[in-house]
Amino acid sequence: MTWTNNSIKAIDESIVKRVRENLSLGKPAWQKSNYPGARTWGADKAVDGNYTYRGALGNQCTISADYQQTAEWRVDLESVVSISHINIFYRTDNRPSPSGYESRFAGFFLYISNTTSKDDGFLCFHEIQNVSGTPIEDQRINCSLNGRYVIYYNERRPDVVYPDYYSTYAFNELCELEVYGCHIPGYYGEFCNQTCPVNCQRQQCDVVNGDCVNGCLPGYIGLKCGDKCGGGTYGVNCTQSCGHCLNNEQCHHINGTCLQGCSPGYKGPGCKAKCDSGMYGINCNQVCGHCINYEQCHHINGSCLQGCSQGYKGSLCNSACDDGLYGENCNQSCGHCINNIQCNHVNGLCYEGCSVGFKGLLCDNACDGGMYGVNCNRVCGHCLNNEQCHHINGTCLQGCSKGYRRTLCKIACEVGKYGYNCNESCRHCMHNTTCNHVNGTCQEGCSVGYHGPLCTNVCSRSHWGVNCKETCSTECVSQTCHHESGHCLLNAQAQFSNTCKNDYTITITSVVVCILIVLMSSLLNFVIWRKMQQKGAVLDTPNDKDYYNEFPSVRIGDKQSGQDMNISPYAELTELDHTNTYEQIHRHVKADEKM
After folding, report:
1. What is the pLDDT of residue 244?
2. Which of 133, 262, 397, 528 has the most CB atoms around its CB within 10 Å?
3. Are 166 and 103 in contact (CB under 8 A)?
4. 3-class DSSP state for residue 112?
């Protein structure tokens, strides 16, 4: 089809005509309850264009049945049109307002719908005045909507309390209802030749000025919806706030998406959701550290607001404890792990084992119970007073118990020693055997002649032998004998007792010899003294021959021999028996032994 200026002009004139026309005139009408038997008061009377006589007798109004709780009437415009306003002329019986019929008119509803059901349409108007004498019978209602059906509705329900001036029942007494607007939806203006703004909801605008009567499409604002949302808003009527777009950029004006991405800590198309599930940062692609109780870290910077789990440190809790520390906030010190290896940063366990001298899972207990060394598997020595040895090297810090020596106190005293520090010497043990290294007792008993736990006591004077069980002979002086041999120290008779044997004889002989030596010495001295006395007398009378005659035995020389008479005065002693005195004693002893 070819459009000419004449055809365009004809269309424009047609549109103008339609704007000025009543779009409801002569269109099909319907009402819920017709007045019984009165065909002249049907629904069509409200769209016939006649309302000069607005009473029952004029047959220009539609009148519904009496005693109804609801009254409903509608007109079918036969197509969806763009409505500007609606005029209603109610029954007055041609009386001035208030005519008395306003009580039946009060509280009415006006719907625009694309179906025959008001519930599917939009409420265009609801009369809600509560002043007696209202509403006025002539109404002009602005109703910028698109629709096919215009529905008048009123009600008087028994469960609702209405103003006193309201009628008891609902009535429909429309003398005329006129619908004005553009016949084609989406146009406005004096000639209905201007397209409604594209961003109007349902592309509906006021047919007079083109304002978007139902609001704007999402993302736009303004009377004609020509402005995009801004200032961090988007969506229907720009009532929604943008999320956390990167660098605070404006989100998409319609759907709110952040075109350049989200700020750190947020995710989703609209960047409104905080990072979760253990993530944080730009695009939520960084993993949180070890926050306490597995709490979510800060969605932006990853910090653990309540602190770290055991074994971790730092604001992000992503560094394991070190430098010999472990546990919550890394405030516990590791035990003595072998080779100073770092313990487990969470529970402090020494997985490689403990250093020398320590034990336990945490290696924080020094060896005790008499143990030391690696894994506390070595036994301490004999420390003084059973004290614990050094847990590492086993040394006895206070010294050794009796009978032990060296730093570990594990070596018994050497042979012949006992006691503290092995400073005591064993005494008279049988057969020279060693004593007990601890207490010095002679394990095989004492040597002959000794008794007591340490064999330090000599037998009493009257006893001798093993364990001093032997009694000295009664023939010994004071019954006293040698503690080892039993020999009498002094004899009770002149001769030796037969009970004195071998070694005893030697002892007695020694005593007798001593006595004899003393006696012989005394005798010898006496003889010498005597001879000296006699010599002195001779010298006094050297020519006295009678002296020599009287004592021939003391002649010094032999006169007859003619020998020199000048001889030592002691020469006369040669007259004694020259036998050795000690030899005589020895012979006497031998003879005694033979006895």
Report:
1. 96
2. 262
3. yes
4. strand
Between the CA of residue 444 and those of 414, 434, 458, 471, what are the distances in Å?
A: 18, 9, 17, 22
Which pairs with CB-CB distance under 8 Å and at least 24 residues apart come from 265-269?
A: 265/298, 265/299, 265/300, 265/301, 266/299, 268/243
CB distance 303 to 297 below 8 Å? yes
CB neighbourhood size of 483 (10 A): 23
Nearest to 48 by CA among 183, 178, 180, 150: 178
pLDDT at 475: 87
Sequence ranges of the domains in the chain: 18-188, 511-594
CB 225 within 8 A of CB 196: no
256 in helix, strand or coil?
coil
User: What is the CA 274 to chain-centroid distance, rounded?
Assistant: 29
Domain 18-188: state its class. Answer: mainly beta
**pLDDT one-digit tens code per residue, 410-436:** 999 999 899 999 999 998 998 888 899
Task: Tell me the pLDDT band of 356, cut-offs 50, 70 and 90.
Answer: very high
pLDDT in tens, 261-286: 999 999 999 999 999 999 999 999 99
What six digits make up the tokens of 30?
């319907």
Q: Is the pTM of this model over 0.70?
A: no
- C-beta of residue 31 within 8 angstroms of C-beta of residue 172: yes
